[in-house]
Amino acid sequence: MSEDLTEPAEVWELPDVATAVVVATEHWLAEGLCPATALALTQNALPLADGAEALSRLQARSHARVVAALLLLIDDEDAGELATRLVETLATGSAATG
Predict the structure, then answer these.
(1) How far is residue 49's CA from residue 89's CA, in Å, rounded to a whole number?
(2) What DSSP string runs through 9-30?
(3) How many Å separate Cα 29 from the centre of its chain?
(4) How deeply is 33 buried, as exposed, middle or buried, from its count of CB atoms within 10 A (0-12, 13-18, 19+)?
(5) Dihedral over alpha carbons 71, 33, 24, 93 (to 10 degrees)
């Protein structure tokens, strides 16, 4: 998965990061991630992946912060990279919605 994370931060948007989180969560679950953590990741990433523009700015940022916090709990290099990408995406303002 690390190969997918080599693009510059500015080309990533919130739905892209959220979709990568959902895909990675399936892998982490198969490798022993707590099902409750996987569920929380999926429940918070899916609304972002489905289109953050349908969410208010506060909702999008809240979901993104929960996802970032959960990613930091996972002992996996890809999780750390996704958390970093998510924070960078939020910082660049591509998560800004209405």
Answers:
(1) 13
(2) GGG--HHHHHHHHHHHHHHHHH
(3) 15
(4) buried
(5) -20
Residue 57 has a pLDDT of 85
Return the amino acid letter for 60: A
Per-residue pLDDT of the chain (98 residues; tens, 9 = 90+): 444 444 443 446 889 999 999 999 999 999 999 999 999 999 999 999 987 678 888 898 999 999 999 999 999 999 999 999 999 888 887 544 43
Residues with Cβ < 8 Å from 78, sequence gap 6 or more?
1, 2, 5, 24
